[in-house]
Amino acid sequence: MDKDTKMPLIEFRNVCKTYEMGDTIVRAADDISLKIFEGEFVAIVGKSGSGKSTCMNIIGCLDVPTSGEYLLEGKNVGEMDKNALAEFRNAKLGFIFQQYNLLAKLSVLDNVCVPLMYAGYSKKERKERALEVLESVGLADKLKNRPSQLSGGQQQRVSIARALANKPSVILADEPTGALDSRTGREVLGILRDLHDKGNTVVLITHDNSIAATAERVIRLEDGKVVFDGLASDPASKVHREEAAGNEIQ
Amino acid sequence: MRFSENFSLAFGNIKSSKARTFLTMLGIIIGISSVMVIIGLGNGMEQYMTDSFESIGTNILNVTITGSGTTRTLEVEDMAEIVRENSECLDKFSPTVALRGRAKIGSESLSRTSVTGVGTDYFAINNYTLAKGRTLRYMDVKERTHDCVIGSYLDEEWYDSDALGKTIRIGGEVFNIVGVLEQEDDEAKEGGTDDAVYVPYSTAARLIRSANITSYTVTITSEDSADAAVDVLENALYDKLRSEDAYTVISMSQILDMMDDLLNVVITVLAIIAGISLVVGGVGIMNIMLVSVSERTREIGIRKALGAKERYILSQFVIEAAVISAMGGIVGIAFGYALSSLATWLVTALLDVELAVTPTLQSIALAFGASAAIGVVFGFLPARKAAALNPIDALRYE
What we know:
The structure holds two protein chains of two kinds. By secondary structure, chain A is α/β, with parallel strands linked by helices. Chain A has a single domain (about 10-250), classed as Rossmann fold (3-Layer(aba) Sandwich). Helices cover about 35% and strands about 25% of the residues of chain A. Chain A contains eight helices and ten strands. In chain A, the strands form two sheets. Chain A has a six-stranded mixed β-sheet with strand order 6-7-8-3-9-10, with helices on both faces. In chain A, strand 4 and strand 5 (about 75) form a beta hairpin. Chain A is globular. The N and C termini of chain A lie far apart (about 40 Å). The relative contact order of chain A is 0.17. Chain B is an alpha+beta fold. Chain B has 13 helices and twelve strands. Classes of the chains: A alpha/beta, B alpha+beta. At the A-B interface, helix 2 and helix 3 of A face helix 1, helix 10, helix 11 and helix 13 of B.
């Protein structure tokens, strides 16, 4: 795969994001440039405050950079208006959240139908597609249940099904195992790996090195900067810069 | 995403908080039903007035001679001449002399019986028909006889339906009953149309020691030309009396119009006051929708993350408010109908008046439209707040 000529699916060009907090300006993303290609399984890892949430928000088209460019499928997201962002989120991105973020009043089936509804599918098409993805995550027997009647792992599988419903370009998982016990967490990571094996692009946001190790490639953020970008198998991927510096002093 | 989907979303949300929705709707229910009952009451009163006036006759003009500003007088013969000369628009006339509460039978005073001095055409003017005996004749008027015609109530209540040839005392003088009229009201009762005595106007005038007749009833040939007939009559009276202040001509249809106008003003004011409760109901909806937006901040964030555009969120909340409001409207209309029936029953039972509180179709359509519009208007602000939420903040909201 020739990464220099192929168009990246996700491209950050000197992306900065600053927030004003009172008098101080916080640089949540500080000149980040990165490329993620179709079919990759990337973990963006960092401690809290490292800027990984900001990155996720920008990748997820929930936020736009203060400066720099973010291109998704070659389109400059920073120039889009709110409606275009909403359409992009709907069509290109599948979100998996730590807290599942299912709609409590809707059944499992209806939850998966929500993005399909906003995409404009007819009721029949929605139901067909939702059934398909729910079967693929093994929840075809829970269609009429409310999310609250399901276990955490099952709920997360519903949210994975929902993320897959619109056949997104990128599956964006924000701490998907954060609320789960380790066994269920491993199951969920297994599903993500399967999705990657089937050719999906998966971006995993986590603070946990061991979870990041599930991915092929690790991008480590610290203080809004990329401090490591390479294969997950590289031992350096697990090392914080401060820790590395500390080791050297020792 | 289709527009109709918002309705199923709205119904889903309403179902999940029934008690709250009902309490919110209550404001609209009370507002709509009170507007309906008030407009219905107005219609009932208008109908009641129209019916009452029609039984009197809307083809009737009432002439009162006040005589102010003139030394001239108007004799009955002058009035007869005016009516004769303007026969293309004026038909019949009768002087009227009111002698209320002056009748006595034996030693009993009939305080509620109306006693009126009338001309020979009076019965024809009022469409009264004779049940027995004879009506008043020209000779009675000319000779100032003590003959009289009575209503059916007096005949039945005081004379066992055998009044002809009997006597009645009016103003201390004895009158012979020469005729009895057919019953006019649905139910003959004291103080009603059938509780009446009619004597020759000339006799009545002498009885109250009045030199001139000051009151006339004139009929017009066509109800449609009432205004023209009033003009003709006023001109003729001016020619005779030479003063505009010396007479007044009022047509029954004019009085009816005036009373209708007055009633409409009163009803409109009352409806506006009731309408204020609709506004209060609307504020209630706005309040609950604001609470709902806060409570559902996370839901809004999720929906936005999943691709809901601002206008979808906006229409979702506006439609939810409109559905709550319109449901309140429908319940309010049903409640308004029930209240109207109750009000009809109460008025009929307590006031002994045939008054039907009838809400019109237009007022119902208006009430429903108003309630839906209130939902849209008062739901808009909370909906806009929801639509404008930043998805990142909304997702993080606990």
